[in-house]
Amino acid sequence: MNLRDACIIRIMDVILALILLPAALLLFAILSLPQLCVFRTIFYVSRRFGRGGRSFPYVKLKSMYDRECAVSTNPGGGRAYMEPDRIPPWGVFLRKTHLDELPEIFFILLGAESFVGPRPLLAEHAALVDSPQRRRLKPGWTGFSQVFLKRRTILPSRIQRRLDIRLGRELCPALYLRLLAATAAGPSRRGVLKPGPTVRAYRASLGSPEGTSHESG
Q1: Predicted TM-score (pTM) of this structure
Q2: Which of 63, 166, 169, 171: disulfide with 94, CB 3.0–4.6 Å?
Q3: Hey, is 58 helix, strand or coil?
Q4: What residue ranges do the domains of the chain occupy?
Q5: Is 209 helix (H, G, I), strand (E, B) or coil?
Q6: Which of 159, 151, 170, 149 is nearest to 128 (CA)?
Q7: How many C-beta atoms lie closer than 10 Å to residue 64's C-beta?
Q8: pLDDT for 33-70, tens place per residue?
């Protein structure tokens, strides 16, 4: 991504975040009481890795009960929706509506994140998909990996790495808008991830014991 495209995307990030900010503040005020009633806390906070491999505080509305679970033995492969005992109905609602991601708007305004970029991951998971292309981008609310996961059950680490490399090579204002449109349209949206080597590799990997991408909180 060249400097011109990076500046345009940053401007679009700020404009879109400012448009969404009033609604985000109102929703946050409404959601705070149920959060405290269900979880006794509002936020889930962790350290994630962003551009240049630097860590930053990643904040979401809490949607899961706490429970330590080793990556290698996690029956859901790290995917929270495959561990329903950890997610109460209120958490399911937050995740399905993506309201748990409201705090990310503030980090986008601050420049730590973008609306479009690689998924922000914990250190042990980021190491599985690390690449120079990934490190050049800010972590994002949506991207190739996030759109892929809206249509698939799991995302093996090697496939996420390919998607992140592709995003690092191809990201531009036009793709930024296409990915936002695909995310808003839902899992049935076609045209952003066309069949090709990455999709074929995904299909071949379904029976593979290789690691999958993980998410918690």
Answers
A1: 0.76
A2: 63
A3: strand
A4: 3-205
A5: coil
A6: 159
A7: 22
A8: 999 999 999 999 988 888 888 888 889 999 998 864 43
